[in-house]
Amino acid sequence: MWSFGEGPDAEARKRRLAAIGGTVVFLGLGLLLAPGLARQEPEASADPVAPPTQPQHASRVSPSGEAEAAPEARSEPSRPSASAIASGQGFDCMIGPNKRIDIGSAITGLIAEIPVERSDYVEAGQVLAELESSVETAAVRVAQARADRRVDLASTQARRDLGERRRKRANELFVNDTLSLDLREEMETQATLSALELEQAREDRRVAELELQHSSASLARRTITSPVSGFVIERLMEPGEVVDEETILRIAQVDPLRVEVILPSNWFGRVQPGNRARIVPEAPLDQPRVAEVAIVDRIIDGASGTFGVRLLLPNPDHDLPAGLRCRVEFLGDS
Question: Largest CB tally within 10 Å, which of 100, 224, 244, 320?
């Protein structure tokens, strides 16, 4: 054993030696425990992270008693409700003429006159162009004269009456034994022929009236009239030109006007023919008007996911021109 002696110096040496021993022991324990603390400290200091929450689906029980997971719910595209339609969601639209008609001729002919110009308003049935018709006019006059002739019918009527009187007298004379059978048969034959001539004259007159109708129809084809009321938007030919299959005039019907709008597919089934809509044209003619749905497409365009709707907009005063852009807001059921 170590001897530290006696006296104050020995006590001091003991205390220093005990302090050094305790320090050595403490350092040794620290060296032994340091690796374990280094491994546990990150785990203890790290915040726990909750796993991502998975959607919970209701399960169903199969006939065998085992639970089966329900299929994942698919999201449905949102459809506008009736209140959404009535609230006035707007869409872009285009105002155009209800009809655009190319006026031509059913027959080949020389244009004699075109009494209308571009931008003129024409009524249905108004004359738009006339073809040269001197031959047809002459044919109508001949047919009219033949249909009005009464001489042939009157003469055959007189011969028939004479034949009836002769047959009547021949029968009386034959009864009194003053006329032979041959003369009696001759008189009856003449009366029968007179009646047939009268019937033929009547048929000839009916044929003459039909010929007059045919000639009049041929003459009417030389006059071109407007099928609708509207504005002349283009004049493509002039008097003196020969028309065959070309367009002479182009007319646009502006009462009612046609409004075309493209809607997204989630509006399909919400708009029906007869529904009303508010139309607001572009400025300066931006006064709201009311139109009515006329046509709803029954097929959706798969590429764009849209379908078309056509509305008719009354325009009795012709104050709204075609070709304007607009906004449409559907008002729900009419």
Answer: 224
